[in-house]
Amino acid sequence: MFKLDDEFLESIGLNDLPEEQKKAFLQHIYDELELRVGTKLSDGMSDAQLEEFESIIDRKDDIITAWLAQQAPNYYNDEAFTRIQQATGLDVNDPALRSEYAATKWLEVNRPDYRDVVASVLDDLKNEIISNRDKILGTDQSAA
Fold this sequence. Notes:
The protein is mostly helical. It is built from 8 helices and no strands.
């Protein structure tokens, strides 16, 4: 997966961004990526699918429990569950961990191409940022 951090900023040529602006810029990129990915993933989904996924994202425990019982009853033994648990450091019984796993598993079941969608949207966003790098850094001479 990808990380939005100083290495990301360096990869798009924004490592010279003032330190006080880096965190806000990375948060903006995360928010924009989330919006664009969500929009692209929702294309072609039914209202029922969108509602179900929204319930999982909103951490509605009854929906998550029912969905996991039907789609991944042995999720504790899934390597993906273990990876998410290790990455987050959450207790195996933490509802937030189950929610995170359920969201990931839901995407695997309903949009098996979601990783490709994320990668494509991120590449597009990176290219947009790179093409506007001088404006972002305030070094665009053509604006003068």
